[in-house]
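Problem 3 from the worked examples.
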Amino acid sequence: MSPIWLRLLIISLLANIIIGCQMLDKGTTAPPKIDDLSLKAIANQNQQISRAIVLLEKGEITEANQLIDEVLIFNPKHPTALSVREQLTQNVESIFNTQRKTNYTVKSGDTLGEIAEKWLGNSLFFISLARLNNIDNPSLLQPGTVIQIPVTETSEIVVKEKRRSTANLRLLEEYRSKRSFTKGLRKANTLFIIDQHLEQLLQIQQLILDGYAKASISISEREKMISTVNEIAKSSRNEKQRAQYQRFIHAQSRLLFLDDATLLFDEKNYLQAADKLVKAKQLDKDINRQTSVFRMEKLLINKLHEQAVVFYRNHSLKKALSRWDLILQLQPANELAKKYRQRTQKLLNKLNQY
């Protein structure tokens, strides 16, 4: 067994350890949490910004700038401070990404913050409105004052314009479905359509034109269609619309000249058939790639050459020249036509000398 004095020593040591731990627990407190410090700092920053906004409402820009500077030193990414700084240093066009503005007449009870909230979606944008309209003291805004407001995608006026434009596009679709082609095209030139809907307008306009072309079967109907579209094109609202009209007129005129040429050729009216084919080729230089056109042109040249030779032998030199001229318009490299035309012209010149 252990001596009594050793047991007493061990008991004493254990007692001292227990007492020391109790004293340590009573004499110390937990260190503050980092999160508590951060929250306090953010609260202070927000109070600083609130004071800056109050100063800006009174037009005291210099003092407000100093407060904003202090916030950004400690928190360079503070969103409200950055927004205020942007509005104080950048132009309105870059902030709202728009050049468009609208006028607004201040009513009794209006504040610049309320106007900014309604038109721009955030009351803090009163700063931009004050700068844009050279308002030194926003808190003294007077009823009857006319101010400019940037027009953004979320502005009430833009939302109304989009609804109106969408309704007008639907109206054009109705004209197309009802086969009211000329009325639809005239309306396409005059109805209100926003820029963002221009491509949709052009798509609907092309569908109306295509429907008009399919509905115009006879040559007389197609001639009338081309004339009508040409007249409508003159009142089109923009370059893209005019270009679309002109492409349509160009294509339909080419087809009309070709069909005319084919009918005249079948009727053995070779001179007029050649004239129509020349006009078609003037609109489309690659038209000869079509097999039917190539064959018709070859036959026409042969027929015109036969007529020219007959006229030449009968001393109808001017008529012979007109045929060879047409051949050269159809086929500028035709050596036979060049040769006979030159010979005929020399003979005609000699006869004119007498």
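Problem 4, a separate protein:
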Amino acid sequence: MKSRLLVFFTIQSLFISNVWSITLEQASDRGTPGVFNYDVLFTNPVCDGFEYEVEIKSEEGELLTKKPVGAWCSKSSADASGARESSPQNRLVKIINDPTTKEIFLTYLSFSNGAVTDALVENIESRDLKVTLMFDHPAFGSGIHPEHFIPAQFMERSRTALKASDLEDQQFFNYVFKKRNENFNAENPNSPRWVNNYKVNRPLQILQAESQTEANSPTLYLRGHDRSTLGYAHNKLIIVNPNDPEKITLVFSSGNMSSGAILHHENWHFVTLSPKTYFAQAHMCLMNGMIDHGLTKNDFVRYIKSCRRDISYDEESDIKTFFVPGEGDAAFEQVKAMINRASKIDMAAHRFSHSGIINLLEDRIEDDGLKFRLIADDDMYWAKFEYRSDRQRHRFPNNAREYNNVKKLLEAGEYRRNNRSYNRAKVQFVQTNHWSRLLHHNKFILERNRWGTVKSVFCGAGNFTKAAFSKNYENFYYITITSVRTAFAEQYDYLWEISSTHAEMPERNIKPNGDNTLIQ
């Protein structure tokens, strides 16, 4: 009798769960029928095989003639890559040029994409497009906290809504938007105290665009870096027509508004839906939180929690959001659940230092036989040589500790059967162009079942680092939508095809089309 009751209540609970769960598409159709659309676009730049001009062999001794096609790119590949219908940059420009786009909010760590900048400026000036732009505070990054050298009144002013008129104050402009010249010589009248900070050129170009009305003049916000409690303003998000009562478009990605929309290896999500959904309103919380409560970690965390609580729509069952700071622990728990129940895990990473994730993977690979694959930028591979032959540190984004994390997982996967060696963990590297700062910049996790079917995707703006789950501004996503799972499964196959095993990596780090040795 007890077993029958247990079965009955189990079936009943499953039925109730199915009745009350709602997908993102269903929620959008309930709010505004017929507007829903979700596309995932991958940059996959068009890059020919760049040939070596010197003889070079792989680690396994094979003669190499060129870099892998589709992996190693140069800036000359930008036009062909950006012109494709499948290019994220192409889609972004179309959205900006669409006459139904009346207002647009953008927040990124960095903003240097010329095509997107030109489209924004043209539409601001020709049809009064309202643009609100937010990016990481440009005074940070020198290793010295700017509050140590920026006058307090300028620092406080830099945290407010900035307009073009703010740039007319030369002192304010110099302190906030230029770099201090490390070679400044006060005794030399021709030695400049300030030099150009190229990372701000595009945002300032947008800020200075002349709108047709004062109400729609561009606005710029600088965020991140509240002493030790906040890290980078690392969000990657666009909200199109945030005040439209019937339809909005959300764009979130792994990439910044830079070569990340065209030449890096990235994933971009374009979601058009009704604003009368939990998912849409959560992003409105994020936008308003960054604008009105984004100066301190505690204020932002409190606001997001309160704003989410006040959303009147049910949270969707097939997509979840995690906004950091504040929800990083929940994001990690979601990753942990994926890893614990998976038979296979596929990851793509740019940075790879989150000890909690790495230790969990190590335990499951070693103890439970989890099959694991990782695709990383070859910066991580070359970072194992932390110093050049002249004992200067390499200027790769990655470091030797991250490569050691890769080694740890490879060692965990080793096993023997019938006197033969095998490995449950496999790692490959996308050979990218460090000389032009082009990257494999994806960061996502695919949970697969025993048959290899992708059951869920974890992705977003943040890297797999402790800072991304605690102190940076980040937007993460857990997705079970079928079309998204399928797209990522196919993309992983493509990235695996164009990436290289340890044995296939060149014995020296040589720039093709020119002998420029970084490592000897």
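Solution to problem 4. The mean pLDDT is 90. The chain has two domains: 23-44+86-317, 328-498.
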